[in-house]
Amino acid sequence: MATKQQTLTAAIKEDHEEMYEYYDNYVKANGNPDEMGRWARQLTWEIARHAVGEEIVVYPLMEKYMGDQGVKLTDGDRAEHQQVKVMLNELESIQPGSPDHQEKLKKVMEHLRKHNDSEEQNDLPALEPLLGREDSITAASSFTRTKKFVPTRAHPSAPNKPPYETLVGFMTMPIDKLKDMFSAFPTEEMKENAK
After folding, report:
1. pLDDT in tens, the chain (195 residues)
2. Which of 36, 64, 76, 184 is most enclosed, with most CB atoms within 10 A?
3. CA–CA separation, 191 vs 136, rounded Å?
4. What is the pTM of this model?
5. What residues have CB less than 8 Å from 73, skipping those under 6 apart?
6. Residue 57: other Cβ atoms inside 10 A
7. What 3-state DSSP class applies to 4?
């Protein structure tokens, strides 16, 4: 089985594009609360996994290779992630399809677009040359693998730096996975129709 050989930047950008796609599908489902709720769950699932993956894999690399500049950037990135986690946590208690739900998710995405653009335009271009291609590919693989073992919901009160984030993530992930089993995600038909 061949593995996908992509750089860290490519892996991060791919996740960002998936977030935008899920949000677009949420917006297109306007008027259908069930479908909107499914796309919102898919989007939240992706954002939560992506954020923790960055905090565990990418941000420590930035701090290691970029020194004080990396620490400054990751402190800002973690603060931005925290704001998103708080909003996503609040979103859990709002009825999908309602005006409040739509407005809250719109705010999440506005915040995320700015954050994602900053990562793609500032953080990653500064980090990639310091990593080199092989280490970037290794980091991308680690990022992708890490996302399989982290929480799938926002936990704003959890630590956002390793090693405590890793530990809490491993403890929280099974509970999130259990909740996911009883949550509605987009059906295969919905995914096919969205293409």
Report:
1. 345 799 999 999 999 999 999 999 999 999 999 999 999 999 999 999 999 999 999 999 999 999 999 999 999 999 999 999 999 999 999 999 999 999 999 999 999 999 999 999 999 999 999 999 999 999 999 999 999 988 888 878 777 777 766 666 667 877 787 777 878 889 888 888 888
2. 36
3. 31
4. 0.87
5. 62, 66, 122, 123, 126
6. 21
7. coil
d(CA 44, CA 195): 20
The answer to whether the beta carbons of residues 165 and 146 sit under 8 Å apart is: no
Q: Taking the mean position of all CA atoms in its chain, how far away is CA 157?
A: 17
For residue 28, the tally of other CB atoms under 10 A from its CB is 14
Comparing C-alpha atoms, which of 23, 17, 22, 8 is closest to residue 54? 8
Continuous segment of H or E residues that includes residue 189: helix 188-194
Q: For the chain, first and last CA: distance in Å?
A: 27
Which residue is listed with tokens 């949420």?
26
| Residue 154 one-letter amino acid | A
Owner of token pair 């992708």: 144
What is the C-alpha to C-alpha distance for residues 192 and 190, in angstroms, rounded to an integer?
5
Phi, psi (5° rounding) for residue 92? -55, -30
